[in-house]
UniProtKB/TrEMBL annotation:
Keywords: Amino-acid biosynthesis, Arginine biosynthesis, Lyase. This is Argininosuccinate lyase. In the N-terminal section; belongs to the lyase 1 family. Argininosuccinate lyase subfamily. Pathway: Amino-acid biosynthesis; L-arginine biosynthesis; L-arginine from L-ornithine and carbamoyl phosphate: step 3/3. One of its GO terms (cellular component) is cytosol. Residues 23-301 form the Fumarate lyase N-terminal domain. PANTHER family: ARGININOSUCCINATE LYASE (PTHR43814). The keyword Amino-acid biosynthesis applies. It catalyses: 2-(N(omega)-L-arginino)succinate = fumarate + L-arginine. It is an enzyme of class 4 (lyase). NCBIfam families: argH. The lineage of its organism: Bacteria, Pseudomonadati, Pseudomonadota, Gammaproteobacteria, Steroidobacterales. One of its GO terms (biological process) is L-arginine biosynthetic process via ornithine.
Amino acid sequence: MSRLWDKGAPLDERVLRYTAGEDHALDNRLVAYDVRASIAHAQMLHAQGLLPAADLEAIRSGLTAIAVEHARGEWQVRLEHEDGQTALENLLTQRIGEAGKRVHLGRSRNDQVLTALRLYLRDAADALAAGVDAVAEALENLARRDASIELPGYTHMQQAMPSSVPLWANGFAAELRDDAQGLRQTHRRLRANPLGSAAGYGSPNLPIDREDTREQLGFETVQMPVTAVQLSRGKAEAQLLFEIALVMQDVARLSADLLLFYTQEFSFVALPDAFTTGSSIMPQKRNPDVFELIRGRSATAMACLAEVMGIVAKLPSGYQRDLQLIKAPLFRSIDLCMETLDILPAALAGVRFRPEKIRLDPSIHAAAEANALVVNEGISFREAYRRIGERLKQDAGKTPK
């Protein structure tokens, strides 16, 4: 298997396994994006007089067919390919001959993979945002369905003020809507075209038109200067991972509430059997595993963000092989969040509040009573606070033992 960097010296297979790692498997999700960027690059080369029309047509049709076959599962990027870029160029050259070798003019694997990654991340950010909106909508539906059910509002794990299912559910929905907006804002760093920066210093003596590929691929700007491209690696990725961590944190807190409400001591909610599991030893139990794992997996999202930030921290300028390691935590966090968002709307649709089990402590209205005294008697809130506190203390003393 020919490698794009091969200088003819033999390579210890242990080196290939160690340096390629899981990169070949991870690159499978980038194949369609890499093909799209490669065709755009070839069309630019032709427009600049650097690639004959016949070669362009062979490259375009060859890459299109290869992408279709990959989507059908007829081939995969394997370890012997090392990475997706090598796999595509080798497959293309096998099919169309010498023309396949001409597609790499004026680019490096460095800007090639980053271009594919940014195209993929644009789609991933939009898919995640849509998934978050779907969870928010499920919560809003829950709020409408159980609009009349009162809940205690808690501070410090104590009943503090009156609340309701709509206040509870819509609070989480509002924060998730905000998270969806944050995900869409990650496009700012994903809109810069890195293609044509090559290994980080451009392609001297070649009339590369980066504006051409910017327009073809839907980027808003050309990332300049070329030396900024490799310095930007990890920043868009970390921003997306940060927004994912916020999403996972919000759904983890939502899950923590539902897990508390599901305990026998609370019994505020019933969870659907389809989203709970049984115990292997206790026949009476149904376990809220889905919500427990959502709560726990927020830690994975935060760890992925920390891993990417740690990889990039203190790297010198220019391309470094360390940057390859960003893909694993990046894809892991995206997949985890998508799987969570996929299951939550159906799980929330099955949540049933049990108003007959919900008891509000009478003292929960104390703040409202103090506010009423301020309005009705014109006294300060601190005086009203003192009076209500004294009355509650006296009432507690009168309670039968």
